[in-house]
Write a structure and sequence with these properties.
about 250 residues; alpha+beta; Gyrase A, domain 2; five-stranded antiparallel beta sheet; about 20% helix; about 30% strand
Length: about 250
């Protein structure tokens, strides 16, 4: 972990350390991303899904020697640790919260580019203290990038509907993991008929996940042929075969 400058800390993120014998093999059979891609310079965004392919947790994976650090929501860290423990069985794997924090900046040269989208800025691990970062939420939503269970909808949204393929959150070559069968079927049959999108604030409905009145935005799950006034940045527009918002 590196020293950090003020104003970069993301207090809504926390770290979970997964270590022990063949920890990468353990996680490889669980999460959506290929652990072979996780290096000190290349963290990866991934999900832990239900057997049906719906999102339970999303997080970033960081290399930490022979262990893996999971950059997750602070409010979900304990629940994620319990879920991973269920899969551990008798394997000599240690799953524990650790000190430290996640940091972000658009201007710092510290860290690495966010693996989901370089335009999100740079991210690194450091002390879990200091001045909180400002502007992260508005910046992320402005790019149409959705994260966290309030936005994704725990056990409500298929992983590919969370734009996981477009934001580098899934490997289609790594082999089996929880939820892989349905996720791969959707991908190869091009059956992603709904998308989680950021849209201007409106009246909430059944498709609404969460709302941000201070930003004038909300998150909704919409059919691809009826995105309406949703933000459609270049990365999403390319997947849908249309033109990006200007």
């Amino acid at each position: 972990m590196n020293e950090t400058s003020p104003g970069t800390w993301l207090p809504d993120r926390a770290l979970l350390r997964v270590g022990g014998e063949d920890v990468r093999g353990f996680l490889q059979g669980l999460v959506t991303q290929d652990l072979a891609l996780v290096t000190p310079a290349t963290p990866q965004w991934a999900g832990l899904l239900t057997p049906q392919g719906k999102a339970l947790f999303d997080f970033l994976l960081w290399a930490d020697g022979d262990a893996i650090l999971i950059d997750c929501e602070t409010t979900r860290r304990e629940a994620l640790a319990r879920r991973l423990t269920l899969y551990r069985l008798r394997r000599p794997i240690l799953i524990e919260p650790v000190e430290g924090g996640v940091h972000w900046s658009l201007e710092e040269e510290e860290g690495v580019a966010d693996p989901r989208l370089p335009a999100l800025g740079r991210r690194w691990l450091g002390p879990g203290a200091g001045s909180p970062a400002t502007g992260w939420l508005a910046h992320r939503l402005g790019l149409g990038v959705i994260e966290g269970m309030d936005e994704l909808g725990q056990d409500k949204t298929l992983w590919l509907e969370c734009n996981a393929a477009e934001l580098n959150g899934v490997s289609f070559t790594k082999g089996c993991y929880v939820g892989q069968e349905n996720t791969a079927r959707m991908h190869y049959r091009a059956k992603v008929n709904r998308r989680l999108v950021v849209a201007p604030l409106g009246e909430p409905g059944e498709r609404t996940r969460t709302r941000y009145p201070d930003l004038g935005l909300m998150i909704e799950l919409r059919r691809t042929e009826a995105l309406g006034d949703a933000i459609t940045p270049e990365w999403l527009s390319a997947a849908l075969g249309g033109s990006p918002d200007t």
